Amino acid sequence: MRESQAIMNSQIYNTLSSLTFDNTFICELPGDSESANYRRQVSGACYSKVKPTPVSAPKLIAYSKEAAALLDISEETCKSEEFTQVFSGNKLLSGMSPYAACYGGHQFGNWAGQLGDGRAINLGEIVNKRLERWTLQIKGAGATPYSRNADGLAVLRSSVREFLCSEAMFHLGIPTTRALSIIATGEMVERDMFYNGNLKEEPGAVVCRIAPSFIRFGNFEIFAFRNDIQTLKKLLDYTIRRDFSLYKGRCTDLLVSTDSLSAKLYINWFEEVCRRTADMVVEWMRVGFVHGVMNTDNMSVLGLTIDYGPYGWIENYDPNWTPNTTDAHGKRYRFSNQPQIAHWNLAQLANAIYPLIEDVEPLQQALAVYSDRFKDKWQQMMAEKLGFRTFEADVDANLTEELFKLLSMVETDMTIFFRRLALVDFKSDYLTIQKFPSNNNYSEATYISNKEDESRNLELFMDAYYVPSQLTADYISRMANWLRLYTKRLEKDNLPYEIKRSQMDLANPKYVLRNYLAQLAIDKAEDGDFSMIHRLLELLRHPYSEQRENEEFAVKRPDWARHRQGCSMLSCSS
Ligand code: AMP
Ligand code: MG
Predict the structure, then answer these.
(1) Are residue 170 and residue 240 in the same domain, yes or no?
(2) Pocket (CB within 6 angstroms of ligand 1)
């Protein structure tokens, strides 16, 4: 009996033994000399060692097989008891050396001082078989020296949202941190969801996130703010060496020898961060993603979407929408403001590394790279979304501007609208519409775009309109006019319909993590039923494909979800 137990243990252990840790962050950077776990200001250190708090009854809710593959972990391993113990924080593997990172940040435009990993604990770094580096981090595993006045825990609802959205974003092709697993802790956590004095006990959970690096703008800001230039330099040299060197197959612009880290290299690095940030935000704009809390502590220097809190997806196209109730007044982080906020955040990063460069001019020039890159990438993205060969600014700038005006004039579902737009074809004088498959039968219909019956041109988009009574004669005529100009523009490019349509279908997802879908998964999970999490995880693995059996997830938000908490409104309390 004892022997077979020993064999079993060794087999289980072997399955996670592919994780070989080298932990460069703590090996190469200065750490906190205090080892006790109490809340404090930590100076001269990039991290504090801290152990996860064990939980009583961890239960695996879901894992991502693709994220596991990045760690060379099999699905079988993910289902093992040891996996649950390790990624709930109950057990440390040999080689793990857990720590919380020290960082600061600008929150809602104001310097907030030391923040740090208040409820995230890094377990260590591994290099996988393909020589890719991954940091493993569990979120919600207990208090750290950076927890300030909070508990270091995470509730099930926010963990479900982070887990599903990380993987959904990855499958959409958007740079993001990844989610390996979500585990219920078996413990309850107290939360005041809307900061209105209504405390509620909620089930707790831990998500394991993985990323090549979790370094944020705020990791640099804290040392600049404290005038600790020595640690600032150590951290930047380390970041460039570890995450931006040629050997990692990443940034091709930072080929300067890493032995002689210099002001020029720092500028090149900053430019690269600007480029990656621009690329990431363009992608958010493409799919209608609103991060919700673009504080500088939530900005990754790798240009990854990080910290999924009160994020949301645009349903009816409203450029002023933010899901974050904490930001309801100023709407600093509203959908349309994200590009400008990213620029502002980059300016804070530039300020932070200024002491290592001591010359404003090159930093300003580098910052301008963000704007240029954003414009180029945005235009390229819009051309893909609209099915054009390239973006021809003289015509297409007006065309896109008018389209976005139209989309916001009446409540129009952004995802459905663009997906349907791909079905529009052109033919000399006619607007030809390949009619959307109804009852699983593909059929085609040609609508003559004439003055007498302009409303017929809108038939294709009817499923995207939330309030059909908003479709006034003026709107219908304006939209018909836009469609005429649009089809003319398509005609000019003369791309074969199928090619144009597949280009558009790859830029316009059919399935996104609609706010209410995440909430449905949460409602069920809170009742102990995790099936919807699994179903959405599977659905969102193929966001650009037609999935006949999943049409119900491609429809516009139902009316009950319009004002429901968690669907259209979220707070930072999680
Ligand atoms: P956020 O803007 O939600 O990413 O969090 C801002 C800061 O608050 C970060 O330093 C987090 O680690 C910290 N924080 C958020 N929630 C908690 C919590 N429940 N316990 C401890 N720290 C937290
Ligand atoms: Mg954060």
Answers:
(1) no
(2) 115-119, 146-147, 150-153, 293, 295, 297-298, 307, 309, 572
Question: Do residue 189 and residue 265 come from a single domain?
Answer: no
Residue 495 has pLDDT above 70, yes or no: yes
Cβ atoms 100, 48 nearer than 8 A:
yes
Closest CA to 510 of 443, 421, 446, 429: 421
Q: Within this chain, do residues 352 and 432 fall inside the same structural domain, yes or no? A: no
Domain, as residue range, for 464:
388-494
Residue of 119, 187, 222 with the most ligand 1 atoms within 8 Å of its CB, for mutation: 119
Task: Please indicate, yes or no, whether residues 350 and 474 belong to a single structural domain of this protein.
Answer: no
- Asked whether residue 120 falls in the same domain as residue 249, the answer is no
- What three-state secondary structure class fits 266? helix
Grade residue 433 by pLDDT with cuts at 50, 70 and 90.
low
Residues 6+ apart with CB under 8 A from 415: 287, 288, 313, 314, 315, 508, 509, 510, 512, 514, 554
Query: Domain for residue 517, yes or no?
Result: no
Which mutation among 41, 47, 107, 115 tests ligand 1's pocket best, with the greatest number of atoms within 8 A of CB? Answer: 115
The tens digit of pLDDT for each residue in 361-375 reads 999 999 999 999 999
Q: pLDDT per residue over 372-409, tens digit each?
A: 999 999 999 999 999 999 999 999 999 999 999 999 99
Q: What does the pLDDT read at residue 435?
A: 54
Does the pLDDT at position 295 exceed 90? yes
> Residue with structure tokens 């990754």?
300
At residue 17 the predicted structure's pLDDT band, cuts being 50, 70 and 90, is: confident
- Copy the structure tokens of residue 208: 């394991």
Name the token pair of 461.
Answer: 């988009």
Instruction: For residue 148, report the distance from its CA to the centre of ligand 1, in Å.
Output: 9
Same domain, 207 and 249: no
Calpha distance 279→268 (Å, rounded): 17
Is residue 519 assigned to a domain?
A: no
CA of 119 to the centre of ligand 1 (A): 6
Asked if 40 and 145 sit in the same domain, the reply is yes
Give, as one character, the DSSP assignment of residue 29: S
Residue 513 lies in a domain: no
Residue 500 in domain: no
Radius of gyration of the chain measured on its C-alpha atoms? 25
Per-position DSSP letters for 448-514, written without gaps between them: ---GGGGGGGGGGGGGGBS-GGG--HHHHHHHHHHHHHHHHHHHHHT--HHHHHHHHHHHS-S----
Residue-level pLDDT at 254 = 54
- Say if residue 259's pLDDT is above 80: no
Query: Distance, CA 307 to ligand 2 centroid (Å)?
Result: 5
**256 and 189 together in one domain:** no
Q: Give me the pLDDT at residue 451, please.
A: 52
What is the SS3 assignment for 248?
Answer: helix
Number of domains composing the chain = 3
Provide the percentage of residues in the chain whose pLDDT is more than 70: 89
What amino acid occupies position 372?
Answer: D
Q: What is the mean predicted confidence (pLDDT) over 287-310?
A: 98
Global pTM reads 0.94
Residue that finishes a domain, picked among 191, 222, 253: 222
